[in-house]
Structures are given as C-alpha cells and as structure tokens.
Amino acid sequence: MYELLKVEGRAKRGRFHTPHGVIETPVFMNVATVAAIKGALSTEDLETIDTQVVLSNTYHLHLRPGDKLIKELGGLHKFMVCNKPILTDSGGFQVFSLAAMRKIKEEGVYFSSHIDGRKIFMGPEESMQIQSNLGSTIAMAFDECPPALADRAYIMPSVERTTRWLKRCMDEMNRLNSLEDTVNKQQMLFGINQGGILPDVRIEHAKIISEFDLPGYAVGGLAVGESHEDMYHVLEAVVPYLPQNKPTYLMGVGTPENILEAVDRGIDFFDCVLPARNGRHGHVYTNEGKLNLFNQKHEKDMGPIAADCKCPTCQKYSRAYIRHLLKAKEMLGMRLCVMHNLHYFNNLMTEIRDALDKGEFAAYKKMRLEGYKNNK
tRNA-guanine(15) transglycosylase-like domain: from which residue to which, for each copy (predicted)? Predict the structure, then answer.
C-alpha cells in the first residue's frame, strides 16, 4: 500500500508498505546486480549508509547461480542476508542491451548468454517464474525497451507487445502467488510504461496500463541515449497519466541533477549503477560536484572527501589515503569510494524527503543545482 503524504507541485512525498518493510519515498535503490553491490559492500554496510531498497537483476541471477538454486536455499533475502525490500528487474532491459545477441518474438525473447553463448529463452511467464523463485519484494513486468530514438514504426508495435506481455505477467504472477511452495506469496508486480520519446504514445500507454490497477508503475526506456531535455519532456507529459496514488519509478536514472529534476516531475523510485561504478574508478560525489581522487591535487590532502558528509569513509579516511589505495590498486580504495557514493545518494534522498515534508523542495532543488553548476 502506498500512502501519499504530501505534494509540492508534482513532487510527491510518500510511504510504501511492503512485506519486507516500509519504504519512505522518494527513494534511491542501491544496485546489487548479482545479489551484491560491486565494490565489496556487505548487507551490514548497507545498513550503515541508510539503504532502504536493494535492486537485483533477474537475467544475471538466472544465469548464475540460478534462480532455482536460490529458491532451494530459501530465496534471495535469505541468500544475500538482506532484511530490506528487494526489487528485481525483469530481464527486459537485456532485450535492449544485448541487441546483437537476441531475437524478439511474440512469445518472448531468444538470447545468447553473454557468459558462455548458450541459448536462453525468456518470455513474460519465464520472467515471472524466475522472479518468483528469487522471492523479491517487487517484481518488474517483462517488457521490451526500444532504443530511445527509434522511429514510430518500430515503437508502436513494440509498445503494444509490451502491453500484451504485461497482461501475461499479471496472470502468471497471480498463479505463482497461489502456489504452496512460493517463496513470497505477497510478491508485487510493477508495470512499465514505454514509448521512446513520443509523448502521445507514452500517454496512451500510461492510460492503458493504469487500468490494470497494479501496486506501482515504472517509466522505462529513458536514459538510453536521449538527451536530458527529452527525458524531462517525456516525464512532464506522461507522469500525470500514471496513478498519483501509486509509486512511480524512473528506471536506470541517474545523476543527482537527474534525480532532483525527476522528483520535481512526480517520480518516487530511482536506481542507477553510476554511484558504484564511478566510485570504483575514484570518482566521488559531493555537494560541490564530482571529484576525481586520482588527480594529483589530492596527494597531500588529509581532509575527508566531503567535510559535511557523515558516511563511514568520511568519518575516518583522508583523500590522500584513498588516492594512495586507488593508485596502488588496493580493493579498499574502491570500497571506500563506493560506500561514500551510495551514502551520498541515500542521504540526498533523505534531504529531498525532509524538504518535501517542510514544503521547501523548490528552494532545496534550486540550492543543490546551483551548487553542482557553480563547481563544474
């Protein structure tokens, strides 16, 4: 159940109740693709950096260690020792990202594994079965993510197929949740809005899938090659046609600037690999913009990454030491940077929620964006 606590313009402050705990929104989901955060962070670490939700990948976990094995071991929560809500994506994004290795048909998608080349088939039913075996809190519908700049002739049939697949996902999830040996009989399904950067297609699709009355809805197929302006234009057009009394999730986004702009347009849920990926390469986020710790100017800097940061990294370690670790290719350097970045994103969401609670989000957004801009 989603409680809409407050609205400022289109920005929403909410609370989403799940079988694995309450999620305060807007929220950033920390990406644990193969049931682990890249950068050697444990689930105990996630507690210390105020993580609310973890996101894992259906396609990758299906390949290894295998969703049936995870079910046999008690489900994903038990397997990765996580007591927080977990969202699993459907494998639909791999339809887009593995374009050279797949064939899309009405029944589903034929893949070649990126690991060993073996043939894989995944359709709506298979995706739901895998996610049911994982036992995640929230399962995403199986969709096709068309290239953002694809033409109307490609996008229209793709979106229509995604709608048909959503109905099949719903039917299969209802069946799976009724079975005796299902890991999580309260698993929830989120539908996905598609349509490239064509506002009329997006709006019509939003109207259709909203009638399915699902627990939540995502806006997919953005941050895949279009400009930020195009993304914001799509959100302005489509979000008003998705249910305000349900969480709205912008998939795969993004930077702190993207998040602030998307919250302003009514988005509740976010995920992105950027904070962990950038951290592994020594790029760290601050309220004054992004820093590259490999730069020589940090060689003798005994201050923290950010003086105003309360993360475990900034409480103990200096830029000089972390730079040394990175240069020496010590895993600890990567881990400390990833920990800081994820804390930064989680804390950004806390500050956004606090600003919404006080009716001060517009002023907060302006302050943060000016800070990023002035220090580029």
Answer: 11-373
Residue 147: band (very low, low, confident or very high) from pLDDT cuts 50, 70, 90: confident
Reported confidence tier of residue 50, pLDDT bands at 50, 70, 90: very high
H or E, element range at 191? strand 188-193
| 309 annotated to a ligand binding site | yes
What is the average pLDDT across 347-374? Answer: 97
In contact, 276 and 28? CB cutoff 8 Å: no
Phi, psi torsion values for 31, nearest 5 degrees: -85, 115
Is 221 known to sit in a ligand binding site?
A: yes
Q: Which amino acid is at 177?
A: N
Record the pTM.
0.96
3-class SS of residue 289: strand
Q: In the annotation, is 271 catalytic?
A: yes
Q: Tell me, yes or no, whether 174 and 193 share the same domain.
A: yes
pLDDT-based confidence at 96, cuts 50/70/90?
Answer: low
**Residue 30: CATH number of its domain:** 3.20.20.105
Please state the rounded mean pLDDT for residues 69-95.
92
Nearest of 36, 91, 29, 27 to residue 55 by alpha carbon: 29
**Set 67, 264, 268, 271: catalytic member:** 271
In a shared domain, residues 255 and 106: yes
Inter-residue contact 102 to 96 (CB < 8 Å): no
**Among candidate residues 236, 271, 306, the one where a domain is terminated:** 271
Whether 113 and 194 share a structural domain: yes
Average pLDDT value for residue range 298-321: 98
311 is annotated as contributing to ligand binding: yes
Q: Which domain holds residue 37?
A: 2-271
Q: What confidence score (pLDDT) does residue 359 get?
A: 98
Task: Confirm whether 116 is a catalytic residue.
Answer: no
Distance of CA 195 to the CA centre of its chain: 19
Residue partners of 171: CB distance under 8 A and separation at least 6: none
